[in-house]
Design goal:
This protein has 260 residues and is of the alpha+beta class. 22% of the residues lie in helices and 33% in strands. The chain starts with a helix and ends with a helix.
């Protein structure tokens, strides 16, 4: 059996996953705080028929070897944590981080998840929560009779109660030495892993952390034109690999029909 059949098949499988990753990027083009993904490919093992540097005639060495590759595989899907463009909303509980950092979200199991989606709300008890009802960590409670809620770039939350200004909480953000190592769990949330390292938590604007901007949301960093180009490239690569399989099949057909 010709190795080119399996080699080209691995290329088709790889481009299929490439399209899957690109489709997910396009599907989330309007998801606030979403970070696009990129599929990285790796070549597979090589059939070495002759090593580079093999002794030739006399005292010479062959300058190149004779190696035949056996295909490609998907190496990793990496999140690209570039800043998305800000969108002004005017909503007092919409927050965007300008720079590095993630909001901390308390999960039902008591663990902390992380997000760039700052579309917060308040529940019936005045606690600041996500769209799914998860609490912002550290917890911030807005008094029932509070007005003029204000959040400074440094994360200080103040309100007016009976004409007096009161501080009701302090937003803290976290950053990671390797944010690409975070694990996506859906609902715009990430979880810490051994690859991401431990979180560095502090007030916004401190310790290389980004500042918080009230009344803004961070849009997805997906560029539609770039993703459409990626789709075209993946489609052409998939088609080229399928043609390689067709060519190999035709060669096998010709060889099988040889007569003495």
């Amino acid at each position: 059996m010709m190795p080119s059949l399996y080699t080209a098949a691995s290329g088709m499988l790889g481009q299929q996953m490439n399209v899957d990753v690109t489709a997910n990027n396009l599907a989330n083009v309007n998801t606030m705080g979403f970070k696009k993904s990129r599929l990285d490919f790796q070549d597979l093992l090589y059939q070495t028929l002759r090593q580079p540097g093999t002794p030739g005639r006399g005292d010479t060495q062959l300058p190149t070897g004779l190696q035949v590759g056996v295909g490609v595989r998907s190496g990793s899907v990496q999140k690209i944590h570039l800043q998305g463009s800000p969108q002004e909303t005017g909503n007092v509980l919409d927050l965007a981080i300008f720079g590095d950092g993630f909001f901390q979200i308390l999960q039902d199991d008591g663990t902390i998840a992380y997000t760039r989606d700052g579309a917060f709300k308040v529940d019936s008890n005045g606690r600041v929560v996500t769209s799914d009802g998860f609490f912002l960590e550290p917890e911030i409670v807005v008094p029932q009779d509070a007005t003029n809620l204000s959040i400074s770039p440094g994360g200080t939350v103040t309100v007016e109660v009976a004409g007096e200004t009161q501080e009701v909480g302090q937003i803290q953000v976290a950053r990671f030495i390797n944010p690409a190592g975070l694990r996506s769990i859906g609902k715009n949330l990430y979880k810490q892993t051994a690859a991401s390292g431990n979180p560095i938590v502090d007030n916004p604007g401190v310790n290389n952390l980004g500042e918080v901007q009230q009344g803004f949301l961070e849009r997805s960093n997906v560029q539609v034109v770039e993703e459409m180009v990626n789709l075209i490239i993946a489609n052409r690569a998939y088609d080229a690999n399928s043609r390689a399989i067709t060519t190999a099949d035709q060669m096998l057909t010709t060889a099988s029909q040889l007569k003495r």
